[in-house]
Amino acid sequence: MTAMEPQFVLAFCIGVGLSAACGFRVFVPLLIMSIAAYSGHLTLASGFQWIGSPVALAAFSVATIIEVAGYYVPWLDHFLDTIATPAAIIAGTIVTASMVTGLSPFMKWTLALIAGGGAASLVQGATVLARGVSTVSTAGLANPVVATMELGGSVATSFLALMMPPLTILLIAVVLFFVGRKLLGSRPRKEGAEASKMA
């Protein structure tokens, strides 16, 4: 199978979609992926069948519960944020690699790191910024709301990636575009306001 075949493109879109979901929550997409593989609804690349094993399913279930619960503990959510970015990149890379077939190992992992790890890091960066704004503006009182939205985003993105892969990629691109535009657009206005105060 070559990289231009429809089956490859579909599998690649699933991988990147699930990788992006890792940016919201690291283990939720892995758990959903494990369930899908274990039940026979998702075919994994050679060497990654362990993701659909009972042991992996149990491990991802426990890890998901701990991760989700941790974001509702005030002091623990800050600690999780410090390790979430590298963890999301690693998870996103593995998820995309587990879906890609027909490439050499070097090409597979390079593509997985750039596309999967990149998608996870972009989404994770957006969630860190959102949590930072919430912490500053509400003294952390709204952080549980942000945590719930992130959890919902991870679950929804994971299911969409499995059911409508191309649409998921499009939606992720649109959301990241508007988030980036808003963040970059607010910076000049903020700097302009500070300059006018100094004047």
Explained architecture:
The protein has one domain. It contains seven helices and no strands. It has helices spanning 6-22, 27-38, 54-70, 74-99, 105-138, 143-163, 165-198. The termini are far apart.
Q: How are the secondary structure elements laid out?
A:
Elements: H1 6-22, H2 27-38, H3 54-70, H4 74-99, H5 105-138, H6 143-163, H7 165-198
What is the approximate shape? globular
What share of residues are in beta strands? under 5%
Q: SSE order in H/E notation?
A: HHHHHHH
Number of helices: 7
- State the helicity in percent bands: over 70%
Q: Mean pLDDT score, rounded?
A: 86
**Gyration radius over CA:** 18 Å
Low-confidence stretches: 193-199
Tell how many strands the DSSP assignment holds.
0
| Terminal-residue CA separation | 64 Å
Q: What profile does the largest beta sheet have?
A: none
For the record, the count of structural domains works out to 1
Helix vs. strand class: mainly alpha
Brief write-up:
It contains 7 helices and no strands. With 199 residues, it is mainly α. The protein has one domain (6-198).
Kindly list the characteristics that best describe this protein.
single chain, 199 residues, mainly alpha, 7 helices, 0% strand, disordered C terminus
